[in-house]
Fold this protein.
Amino acid sequence: MKFRLTYEGPLPSTQRGPQNGQPDPRAAVKHKIRQRFHRQLKRLWGTNQNLIKSGPYEQSILSAEARPPQTIESLSHKFNMFGWNFVPLVSAEISVTCGLDVLLLRPTPRSRDSWFGDIDNRLKTLVDALGVPSPNEKYIDHAPEDAEKPFFCLFENDKLLTRLALETDEMLDLGNGLKEFDVRLIITVEIRPLVVSFDNMHFT
C-alpha cells in the first residue's frame, strides 16, 4: 500500500528523548503535527476500500489460526492509553513495516541554511509525531476532542519504520504566512508485509 501525507508548519528539532519520566519539551508541537496526520489518516481509513472492510473473512477461507482483519474498533480498544483510543495503521501484530520518502521544502535558500545541520533532530520530531505518543508526552493531562475519538496514527512505534529517505529543496511558494523555520512536507508512505498472511494481505 502506498499513499501520501502532507504537513505545513514548524518542525523544531528534538535533541534527545526525555529521560527518567521527564516531560517531553516538544510535546505540544508534536501533538499539533500529530493532529494534522490524524485528519488525513482518518480520511484514508474511510476511503480506502481495503481498510473499510470491517467484518471477518468468510469462514471457508479461514484457517483455525487466522484472525479476522483488524478494525478501527479493535485497534482503538487495544491501544487505549492515557484516556485516548489510538488507531495505528502499522502494528507489529500483523507483521508489516513502513517506509517513508520525505520531500522537505523550506523557505531559506541553501546559501542561508544555518539550521539544516540539525536536520536529523528535526526528522526525529516528525517520526515521533507519526506514531502513537509516549508516556512522556503527558496525554493523560488532556482529553481528545470529539473528532479525535478515536485518534489515528501511522504506526505503533518507530521500530516498524524500516526505511527513511529525505530530499530537501527551497520553498518558492511562501503563502499561508510561513515563517523562516517552517517547512512544507510531502511524505510518501509505503507499507509492506514482512510475511504475507490473512492479517496483512490487504497491504500487498
Q: What stands out?
A: Strands lie at 2-10, 80-81, 84-90, 96-106, 151-155, 161-170, 182-193.
